[in-house]
Amino acid sequence: MEGREVESSLKLVRQHYTAFSCGDIDGLVAGLDPGVAITVHDEHGVLYGEPIRGREAARTFFEGISAAVTHSSVEVSSLRADGNRVLAKVTIGGTLRASGRTGAIPAIHLFKIYDGLITEIRTHRPDWRGDDAETFSD
After folding, report:
1. Among the four given CATH numbers 1.10.287.1080, 3.10.450.50, 3.60.120.10, 3.40.50.300, the one describing domain 2-127
2. Backbone CA torsion sign across 10, 48, 50, 20
3. Is residue 137 within 8 Å of residue 102, measured between CB atoms?
4. Is the dihedral of CA 124, 37, 62, 116 positive or negative?
5. In terms of DSSP bridges, do strands 117-124 and 32-41 run parallel, antiparallel, or are they unpaired?
6. Is there a contact between 118 and 33 (Cβ–Cβ < 8 Å)?
7. What CA–CA distance (Å, rounded) separates 19 from 21?
8. E strands of the chain, at which residues?
9. What is the per-residue pLDDT across 35-86, written as a single tens digit (0 to 9) for each?
10. Domain residues of the chain, as ranges?
11. What is the reported pTM?
């Protein structure tokens, strides 16, 4: 049973990244549990803002990313699953709409999955929003 659970978890995370790269907000939200919790942390574990809770708040979160970044992409360098947990090392790329700067940042995502839906996403990444963010160039 565990092998099937691992494959199912990996498939769900791959679908999540495909939806993100395609700008498919409905596809992103469809794979989320109604009580999903999303937290975004810097590379040192410091929380950015408040946790995002629930599908509608998640929709707003992903719509905000889509509004801020065009040509979004996710390059997955590794996916590891242990039952209902998936650890992903990725590079997220795109162009900031406000400044036109293009670039990519590394991130680590931890997904928790229950009953075929993502219940938690914990993201660790550098801050791309600052004027001095070196990962995005003019």
Report:
1. 3.10.450.50
2. negative
3. yes
4. positive
5. parallel
6. yes
7. 6
8. 32-41, 47-53, 69-82, 85-96, 102-114, 117-124, 136-137
9. 999 999 988 888 988 999 999 999 999 999 999 998 888 999 999 999 899 9
10. 2-127
11. 0.86
